[in-house]
Amino acid sequence: MAGRQASQVVLSRQARTFLEGQVRHHKAPRSLSDRCRMVLLCAEGLQSKEVAARLGVHEHTVGKWRRRFVEDGIEGLTDEYRAGRPRTVSDAQVTQVIERTLNTMPKDATHWSIRSMAAEIGLSHTTIRRIWSAFGLQPHRAETFKLSTDPLFVDKVRDIVGLYMSPPNRAIVLCVDEKSQIQALDREQPVLPMTPGVPERRTHTYLRNGTTSLFAALDIATGAVIGKCYKRHRTTEFLDFLKRIDAEVPENLDVHLVMDNYATHKTTTIRIWLACRPHWHVHFTPTSASWINQVERWFAELTRKQLQRGVHRSTTALEADITTFIDAHNKNPRPYRWVKSADQILASVKRFCHKTMSRTSDSGD
Hints:
Blueprint: H1 13-24, H2 30-43, H3 48-55, H4 59-72, H5 91-103, H6 114-121, H7 125-135, H8 153-165, E1 171-187, E2 206-219, E3 225-230, H9 235-248, E4 254-259, H10 268-275, E5 280-284, H11 295-307, H12 315-331, H13 342-364
Parallel strand pairs: 1-4, 4-5
Antiparallel strand pairs: 1-2, 2-3
Helix pairs in contact: 1-2, 2-3, 2-4, 3-4, 6-7, 8-13
C-alpha cells in the first residue's frame, strides 16, 4: 500500500517574498530561517525525505513544518505558546519585596543587597535579582543633586541660555571661571609604563609639590580658550586676567562674560574696571548652577586628559603642561553645542521638584 501522501505546498508571491527574506536576513532567528528553508524546498516539489537529507534534519521535522504551513500559513512557522513551569512566587510576595526595598532598611546597613533581602523575605537571591531587574530597582546605586535657591534662577537661565543659542551680532561670548588649587602631584615611586597585557601601574600614595590656579575664558562660538595660571587666587589676579582678555579681543566687538558669583568677581576694583568699559557685559550664573557655564565642560577635559594621570614634580612643570594643553586645544578648537532651550531646562527642574515634593510628602505620611 502507498504511504500517506505529503501535503502539497503552494506559495503566494507575498509568502515567497517573506520566506526568502527570512532566509537572507542574518539577524533572523536560526529556527525560523531553517523552517523557511524547509517550506521553500517543499514548494519546489521535493519530498520530505529529500528535504531532510539536504538540510540535515529528520524527516518527521520536515513533515511537521510542511503540515503546519499548509494549515496555518506563515503564522504556523512560529512556536506555539508553552506554559512552562508553574509560578512558585506569588504576586503578594513580589509586592512584599518591592515594598520592603523601597520603604525599609536593614538593621546593619543603609540599603538592601540581593542576599540580605533574600534572607529577610525567605526567597532565593536569584528570585530577588529577577524582581529587582523587572522593576528597575538598584539599591546599591545613589546619585547626588543640588537645586539652586537663587531667587533670580529663571531670569538668569533664560539670559545665559539665550546667549548660547542666539548670540548677539558683533559680539563675543566668553565663559569665564577659575580652576583653583590644582595640585602638582608626584608619585612616591616611579610609574610603571603599560606593557602588552599589563596596564600602567602607579602607587596610590603621592607627594604634593604645591598648587596653582588656572583662569580660563572659553569662546562659545569657536571653542578657543584664553587661559593663564597664577600662584594665588585674588582680585589682583582676576583683574590681570580680564586685562589679558581685553588685549586679545578685537576692540570693535562687545564682550559678554558668563561667570559665577564668586566674591572675587564682584569686588569694587572689578566693578570700577568693568564700568569704564561699557561694551563689556556681565551675566552671572545662578548660585549652585555651575553646570550652565560651558567652560566647566572644558575643565573636565583638562582634568581627564592632562591632570588626572599627570605626574608633576613642581608647579612650574604643572603650569607648563597646562599651557601646552591649551595651545594644542586652540590649534583645532571645537565649540560645545548647547541643545536644550531655557523652557526645556525649567520644565525639567519643575518636574524634578514636583517628584521630590511628592516623595517627601509620602514619606512624611
